[in-house]
Amino acid sequence: MRNQGYSWEETRDRISEEIISGRLAADTKLPSEPELCVLYGARRHSLRKALAALVTEGKLRVEHGRGTFVERAPLLNYVIGERTRFRENLLSQGLTASGETLSEMKIPASTRVAAALKIAADAPVFARSWRGFANDLPISTGWAYYDATRFPDLLERRRDTRSITDVYRSYGITDYRRQSTTVLTRIASEREAAMLMMRPGQSVLVVQKVDADLDGRPISFSEAVWAGDRVQFTFEADQPTVMTTERPSDD
């Protein structure tokens, strides 16, 4: 600990980072002021200013007579319908949408992927692993699969464009729709919890979906894992949906 202690801004940022990372989970009661001063190496005045700033930001709440608690992050309401778009969903709620590619490869289609894309088993598909963010907070991670015969240079085009919608347009697919959606729940794996900055043992929502062109021909199949405590799904009336609590097959 430094002799002068951390500034209130530094203290605020350190506590904020622990909240965002999940080390300080929602509804956790913070220790007493003296304990926090020792824990974060801050003087009491700096600590109080930092806590007040985090209350203003909505990351902490004060319950009079009980103490200071980590506030629950507001749920993202993700609307699933015929035309479901990640970026548009977040922008409509004032959130910044972003994503990163984790890996890309060309592989033989598994039985499940082939059935979803309506192609032969072991036919070549492009597989892309990704992670999605809302205001820099990870909310989803998963895999997407595309028919490599129909889209022979999809991965190269994907790297040069902002969204998969733009990639489809480059192939002459001006519009596409959600053909099916299946939602499952289970406990996050250790890797998924780390990727989504969740505590071990928390639940995730698993969304398997098929998108198709306007002729009804599948163009992609994906399986995404969403942070269950940050996202809720709203299904439009015309969206066919299957709900189950079974763990998805690894096939």
Task: Describe this entry's structure for a reader.
The protein has helices at residues 8-21, 33-40, 44-56, 86-91, 111-117, 154-160, 164-170, 190-195; strands at 60-63, 67-70, 76-80, 97-108, 124-134, 137-147, 176-187, 203-213, 218-227, 231-235, 241-243. The chain starts with 7 loop residues before the first helix and ends in an 8-residue tail after the last strand. The chain is 27% helix and 35% strand. The strands form 3 sheets. It has a 7-stranded mixed β-sheet. The chain has 2 domains: 8-70, Winged helix-like DNA-binding domain superfamily/Winged helix DNA-binding domain (Arc Repressor Mutant, subunit A, Orthogonal Bundle); 76-243, Chorismate lyase-like (Chorismate lyase). It is an alpha+beta fold and 251 residues long.
How much of the residues is beta strand, in percent? 35-45%
CATH class of the largest domain, named: Alpha Beta
The neighbouring-strand order within the major sheet is: 4-5-6-9-8-7-11
Mean pLDDT across residues: 87
Largest sheet entry: 7 strands, mixed
What oligomeric state do the depicted chains represent?
Answer: single chain
Would you list the SSEs in sequence order as H and E? HHHEEEHEHEEHHEHEEEE
Helix content: 25-40%
Low-confidence segments, ≥5 residues, pLDDT <50?
A: 243-251
N- to C-terminal distance? 52 Å
Question: Based on CA inertia axes, which overall geometry fits?
Answer: elongated
Q: Give the CATH H-level superfamily of the largest domain.
A: Chorismate lyase-like
- The third-level CATH topology of the largest domain is Chorismate lyase
Rg from alpha-carbon coordinates: 22 Å
In DSSP terms (H or I, runs of 4 or more residues), the helix count works out at 8
Label the CATH architecture of the largest domain. 3-Layer(aba) Sandwich
- How many structural domains does the protein architecture include? 2
Strands, count:
11
